[in-house]
Amino acid sequence: MVRRRRARAGRPHLPNDAKLAAEHRMVIIVPVYEETETGVYYNTAAVFDADGSYLGKYHKTHIPQVAGFWEKFFFKPGQSNWPVFDTAYGKIGVYICYDRHFPEGWRALALNGAEVIFNPSATVAGLSQYLWELEQPASAAANGCFIAAINRVGTEAPWNIGNFYGSSYIVNPRGKIEAQASDTDDELLVHEIDLDMVREVRNNWQFFRDRRPKLTPASPTASSPVNKSGCSKIAGANNELINQGRHRRHPREYLPRRRAVCGR
User: Fold this and answer.
1) DSSP state of 124
2) How crowded is residue 164: how many other Cβ atoms within 10 Å of its Cβ?
3) What is the rounded distance in angstroms from the CA atom of residue 246 to the CA atom of residue 250?
4) pLDDT tens-digit map of 28-70
5) pTM for the complete prediction?
6) Which of 27, 89, 98, 205 has the fewest CB atoms within 10 Å, i.e. the most exposed one?
7) 106 domain residue, yes or no
8) Are 142 and 107 a contacting pair, CB within 8 Å?
């Protein structure tokens, strides 16, 4: 089911979802078909905090044009600047469906502070199923974060483009799947995660410290402007963590232990 929502004051009008978030003390991510102005549509995910407050939204960045998924006809590509939402349970990012095939977005969200990245999807068996348990675990390990990979089950009449293979799962920063749902049945996946693992894995591996962004061609974007050296400023800011070969401790390392629950 696709929910179409007209934006009001720059945000989707979703009063029922805000109410549910507050009632159940849950952070809710709501994918919708959003009309921001007449004739302009985005594949949008709105984020509500556990008190029902609206935190913001993410527009799908990469729009596919393949058999059964002619999305360029419907959606405008997003320019959401990789937002990270500071929720009651941790810092989260959103990366929608086809976005998952592009590693740059996972990295940008992690660099912006995401501890858990949610990837709501609707994808069928065939073209991409073999990548389902490959890309997200690899991205979780490469970026030291949890990823909640979410997919639906069943079929969609009248198009019947194939079976949606479900298999939603939560993968930890080491790339290990900790919990997984059915590939055929509608299920609610509830699993407790330890956010301290994010800090532990990043401190052990130091992938962000050892990056060499100046050697990688940078693409000029609103979220990652390029300076005269050709290095993106987001990467340059990350290099400030390196001081005479030593990694400065991030302020979050002094925070108390926290736990969070993710669900599908």
Assistant:
1) B
2) 19
3) 12
4) 999 999 999 999 999 999 999 999 999 999 999 999 998 888 9
5) 0.80
6) 205
7) yes
8) yes
